[in-house]
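Hello,

Following up on my earlier ticket. Below are the two sequence lines again, exactly as submitted.
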Amino acid sequence: MNANADPLAVGGGAPPKRARRRSPDRAFRYYMIAPAVFVILLIGLFPVIYTALKSVQNVNMFDMDTSYQGFIHYKALMSDTRFWLALAHTLIFVVVALPAELALGLAMAYLFVDRMPGRPVFVTLLVLPVLVSPIVAGATWRLMLDNRYGPINQILGWIAGEEVTLLWLVDPNLVYPAIIIAEIWQWTPFMFLLLWAALSNVDQSQVEAAELDGASWWRTFRLVVLPAIWPVVAIAVLIRALDLFRLFDVIWALTKGGPGTMTETISIYAYVLGFQQFETSYTAAMAFVIIVLLAVTVTIVLRRIEIDR
Amino acid sequence: MSQLEITGLRKHYGSFEALKGIDLSVPEGEFCVFVGPSGCGKSTLLRTIAGLEESSHGTIAIDGEVVNDLRPRDRNIAMVFQNYALYPYLSVFENIAFGLRARRVADAEVNRRVGEAAEMLGITPLLDRQPRQLSGGQRQRVAIGRAVVRDARLFLFDEPLSNLDAQLRDGMRAEIKRLHGEIGKTTIYVTHDQIEAMTLADRIVLLREGRIEQEGAPLDMFERPRTRFVAGFLGSPQMNFLPVEAGADGLVLADGQRLPRPLNASGATGSLVLGVRPEHFSRAGEPVAGEGRLDILVDLVQPTGTRTYAQFRVGAQEVTAELPAHSVEAPGARLALAVDMARVSLFDADGIALR
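Thanks for your patience. The regenerated structure is below:
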C-alpha cells in the first residue's frame, strides 16, 4: 500500500505512532471496496485480457487452435483494406455527426435556458428519442425512409410537387446522410440535456456583467459561458465520440453496412467477421487494436480536461 | 440638468406588479441610494435602469436620451453585483480590462487605465491573480475596478457589501464614499441596510411595495419622516411607536401616563401613534412644567459600551431608550425619563405623519 495514495497523508515524515494507529483503518477501507473492485475487474478487465489472449491464437470456424501463433492476425489486419475502410467510415460518422449533435444540442440548450410556458412538456418531447432503443430507432427510420411507403419521400414529394422516389438506403449518395440524420435525431437530445444542465448552472450575473461591460454575444460565450460549461462539453463530446466510434445498431437496421461495404463501420465489420464468419482470433486482434486506440485517446482527453480545470 | 430621469416606470412579472409607477430624477454626480425591505422593488428598479429587466410602462432617460429600447451594453452603464460576478477564468487584470477590450480600446490605453484603476483601489499587486485566489474584500475591489475603469455614464451598485463581514463592510463603505468623491459619477446604490443608506447617500429613495415611499436627504428623512414606515425603517434601534389618545391638553399613553402635545404637531385628536426615537429619551431631572416625562420600570438592559439600551413597557408596547453608559445597571430599576417632545413624531391611524 502506497502512502501517497492516502489523501490525508501530510508530507513524508508523519510520526510512526499516528501511522500505526491509522493503518488498520485504512486496511478496512480497502477491504470494503475490494468486492466492488473485484467485480469491476472481472467484467471490465477480463474480456480485454481474454481478447488479447485469443488474438495471438488461431481460432476460427474450422479450427480450435489455441497454441501461440504470434502476431499473424495483427500483420494481416495491417494489410486488410476492408478494415481500414471500415475505420475510415467510422471516422466519417464521428466527424460529421458529432459536431452536428454538439451544435444542435447547444442551440437547443440555449433555447430552453430561459423559463417559458410549456418548457417541461417540450423538453420531455425532445428527449424521447434517447429513450428509444437504437435498434428500434433504426427500424423506425428504415420505415420512414422507405422509398415507396416512407413518409420522408412523401413529404419531400409534397414540397417538390411531384413524386419523389429517393433510394435513401441504397443510393451511395444518400446512405450517409440517411444514417447521419437518424443518428443525429436520436442523440442530439442527449447533448441537449447535458448542455442544458451546464448552461443552467452558469452564473447569470457573470453573463449580465459581461453584457453591461459591452461584450458581444460571441465574446460573452467564448470568455464567460464556454469556460464554465467546458468540463461538461468535454465529457459529453467524449461520451458521444466513443458511442459513434462503436456505431452499430442504426446502421445494422438501416443498411447492414451496405450497399456493399459502403457504410460498414468497425463494429459492423467486427460483427460480420466474428459472428457470421467466425474468424474469432482475427476479430479478437481487431477488437484489441480498437480498444488500445480508444483507451489511449480517452486517457489523453481526460488528462487534457483535468489540466484545463 | 438631470442625468437620470425616470417617469411612470412600471414593471410586471405576470400578474405581479414589482414597480408601481416610479418617478425619479437624479442629478449629475449625485450619490443616490435605493433602500427598502426585501421585495420592495429596489433591485428590480436598478436592473431595469441597467436594462437587465425590461420595463412594462414608462421611460428611463440618461442624459436626456431615452434608453428603454437600448440593449444593456449600449447604455454605457457600469454595475457592481452583489456576488461580484467576476469572470472566474480570467485574471484580475483581464477582469478589469474586459469592458475596454470589448470596446476595442488599444492595448497601451488598456494598460494605462487598468493600471490607474488598480492604483486607485490598491489592488496593483493582485493583477496577475485569478479571482478564486482573492478574499471577499479583494474581489469587491476588483468588481469596483471593473466598473470605474470604464468611462460609464452611470454607476450602479447592487448591494455590493452584503457578502462581506461586518468589519470589512465598514471599511469598504468608507472607500466607496471616498471613491465617489474622487470620480464624481452619478451613482445609484441599492441596499437594504439603512446605515449604508444614511452614511453614503446624497439622497435616499426609500421604496416600499414597488412605490417610492419618500425621497430626500438622509438627515431630512431621518428627522422628518413622512410616514410611520419611513420613521421605522431609518434609525437603529428602531423608533418606538406608542399608541396614544390625543386630546386638546395632551397625549394619554396606554398605561395612563400623560405627555404634553408635541410642539410641531397639528391639532389632530383621537387615536394616534407617537413615534419616539430611543435617543430622544434621557434621564429626567426635577419635574418641569410642560416637559414630557415617563416613569418606567426597566425590564431589560443592553449595554453596548458607548451607550446603554434600556427596555421597558408602556402598556403592552415594548419600548427602547438609548441612555448614556452606566445610567442604568440592572433590570428592575425604576427611572424617570424625559422625552424630547420637540423631536417626536405623531402619526395618524394610516401611518401618515402629522405636521
